[in-house]
């Protein structure tokens, strides 16, 4: 598993190298969001405001909001609306009440049309006011309404009687009269405090009532999530999941990412890194595999997690110089100027082009044209990585493995090295090929011809 930190440059590389795939995934997510919008009909929401006059504490307002959205109120609203196929339990999921600033309760209703949403909010508001008035004792029952007033009249009469008794008592002449006047005053004080508590406990004394602040406004737009929200959310979610999937796959990848790690997996020395033009080859294999065609169409037939070159490669002469230096190091390492086996993984187009350039350098080596024959003759062999098989050793002086950076796992590279060892070939070195950007020539002359890919049938020299 890779331990490299995830940087913004990595995410930017995903968007650059997987642009077509991300566009297709985003379109698929948008289609899924559109399909979801067809399954869920549009909803409309509006609110009705109720003013609670008097002084209310915050916890009391919260209690009133809970009462407004309770089944006792919503069921009455459902019975008054009498909508076919809509029960009180279903309406409870569409009604929401909350306490706002200024002793205001906002009741929101959601329905499948603006008219129904308006009627639902207004009806729940009316039923809530009626229900709260009945709870607070504000009913039309004359006896219940007159009971508090009758009690107050009795208290007033009792106070007058106490005053008469206090005046009739001998004021301060005897101890008994003083005690009687004191007891009467205590009784008057107790009655006054009892009436004060009764007034405070009466909701009609400190809370005049509830007022509906006009009808609810008819909604002009759909309640979220709208169709646009679902389409955008589907596209964004699919896009994020794809990017996260790329990052997780990169973290779990076991492909060596550096030249030294690749050479260590092959058990050989690194001879150098060569550059090949990064453009796609003009002629692709004419396979009829639909999966391969789909991968090419989506742009996933090339790896994205290989770091991009920091600057464009030089011209053709600079690239040939790098190949020539690698070839010089290889000649210095070989024991005798015999044939050399160039092993490349099957399907590695970058390694194929690099091997072709090495074969071209070997063909133009002056040591090969001399009578001494002091340069090896390369022979290119392309082996499958799933079941690698290398020809048996004949007169070859070793095997040179040429492969691209970050394309193969350590197990696949070890399999190639074992195949070379089974065939009797010693891996004399490793060459890593990197695809780089090429500079656009500013002159009007012809651009240098690209190196032709080399396969099993192409040989650098005779046997």
TrEMBL record:
<feature type="compositionally biased region" description="Low complexity">
    <location>
        <begin position="439"/>
        <end position="452"/>
    </location>
</feature>
<keyword id="KW-1133">Transmembrane helix</keyword>
<feature type="region of interest" description="Disordered">
    <location>
        <begin position="439"/>
        <end position="463"/>
    </location>
</feature>
<feature type="transmembrane region" description="Helical">
    <location>
        <begin position="21"/>
        <end position="40"/>
    </location>
</feature>
<keyword id="KW-0472">Membrane</keyword>
<keyword id="KW-0812">Transmembrane</keyword>
<protein>
    <submittedName>
        <fullName>Polysaccharide biosynthesis protein</fullName>
    </submittedName>
</protein>
<dbReference type="InterPro" id="IPR050445">
    <property type="entry name" value="Bact_polysacc_biosynth/exp"/>
</dbReference>
<feature type="transmembrane region" description="Helical">
    <location>
        <begin position="230"/>
        <end position="250"/>
    </location>
</feature>
